[in-house]
Amino acid sequence: LARNLDHLASQPAETADGHRVRLMVNTGLMADVVRSLERGAEGVGLYRTEVPFLLRDRFPSEEEQREIYREQLLAFAPRTVTMRTLDIGGDKALVYFPIDETNPFLGWRGIRVTLDHPEIFLAQVRAMMKASLGLDNLRIMLPMVTGIGELEAARKLVKRAHRELQEEGYDIAMPPLGIMIEVPSAVYQARELAERADFISVGSNDLTQYLLAVDRNNSRVASFYHPLHPAVLRALHQVVEAGHAAGTKVGICGELAGEPGGALLLMAMGYDMLSMNATNLPRVKSALRAVNKADTDELLKQVMVMESPEEIEKSVQAYMKQVG
Ligand code: PEP
Ligand code: MG
Question: What is the pTM of this model?
Answer without folding.
Answer: 0.97
